[in-house]
Amino acid sequence: MKAEAEPSGSEGAAEAEPSGSEGAAEAAPRGGGEAAKAAPRGGGEAAKAAPRGGGGAARASAMRSRMPGARERPRLVLVTRPTPLEVLIDQFGTYGQARFYLESRGQSIGWAEETHQRFEASYARVQAAVPPDERRARVDRANLSSFLFAPDDVVVVVGQDGLVANVAKYLDGQLTIGVNPDPQRYDGLLCKHSADDMPRLLAWLASRDERAFHVQRRAMAQVDREDGQRLLALNEVFVGHRTHQSARYRLRVDGREERQSSSGLICATGTGGTGWTKSIARQRHLELTLGVEEPRLVWLVREPFPSVATGTDLDFGLLDADAALELVSEMGDDGVIFADGIESDRLDFLSGQLARITLAGQRLHLVVPTA
């Protein structure tokens, strides 16, 4: 499924709470439990889960690492994003203000507390499965663009499917493991593992026994601007107007060219073919079957408008590994290109600028259970 291309917006309300009310100033109840406190994830039970004492496993691991010719184990990079409760508290300043805001509008903060609690419990189990002497790092989604991934890192994404898409563009062959912390809330089509699978996954990293798990090499899309800027996508690339105005451009593919006015263009991989692209295809009664590892892309024009100056003949197609789709912008302002639903990470696409969309050379190496 499409990695829910994580829209950058928060899941809570963005409106600020007027000051002066008793509820707005109320602090989180001290007896409210871990979910209500939204404790920083770096400590608490998650940090305590793995004992610091050496233990038999830790001593054996340390002895192996000192043996002549011993191979250093790869670093585990744990990737997370703020929970809905943490987003709410960040917006309103305190738990009490966030709760007051929602309750004053007939809503409950309970769903956010439950989601936070399930995440913390899953993350603690992931941490507990990692040997105390194992090299590890943790990075939040907001810091991915500045984090330096080593070539042999193993990336463990703990969150919803869209978080895998968010991290994919920063990787180049590193193994990626997706852990679904909340199966009641997230589909888990990219994050296919539970936290309880971590011991078996860590053992698999040493054995690479494909009877248990194997690596999918998922295709990605690439956009190159004429000035050298580049954007990568695991799901899809969107080219269009930043607002709801019509996008105007010239489209070139397979030796044909057409001037168009539309709601934008989508170019997707097999991974993205089950999300936004699937929705468009259903509306147009198109049958799309594109494998997640298949070296092809599918492109669709959204609501092309016929006029004396624009056409609608080129509105759908497939791009093979050696093919390209080119667009020349005719938008004076607010023309954009973004990937996987993240509008904040975008390229400008203004009049005269050229965008060339192709299959990317790199792929996401995703560890999945063997059926």
Description:
By secondary structure, the chain is α+β, with helices and mostly antiparallel strands.
Describe the secondary structure blueprint for this structure:
Blueprint: H1 22-25, H2 33-37, H3 44-48, H4 55-66, E1 76-80, H5 84-92, H6 95-103, H7 110-129, E2 136-140, E3 154-158, H8 161-168, E4 175-179, H9 198-207, E5 213-218, E6 221-225, E7 230-233, E8 236-241, E9 247-253, E10 256-262, E11 265-268, H10 276-283, E12 297-301, E13 316-319, E14 325-329, E15 335-339, E16 346-348, E17 354-359, E18 364-369
Parallel strand pairs: 1-2, 1-3, 3-4, 4-18
Antiparallel strand pairs: 5-18, 6-7, 6-17, 8-11, 8-15, 9-10, 9-14, 11-12, 12-13, 14-17, 15-16
How many distinct helices?
10
Portion of residues in beta strands equals 25-35%
Number of strands: 18
What would the principal axes of the Cα set say about the shape? globular
Query: Structural class, judged by helices and strands?
Result: alpha+beta
Question: Strands across the major sheet, in which order?
Answer: 2-1-3-4-18-5
**Average residue pLDDT:** 85
End-to-end CA span: 17 Å
Largest sheet: 6 strands, mixed
Low-confidence stretches: 1-70
How would you spell out the order of helices and strands? HHHHEHHHEEHEHEEEEEEEHEEEEEEE
Roughly how much helix do the residues carry, as a percent range? 10-25%
Radius of gyration: 23 Å
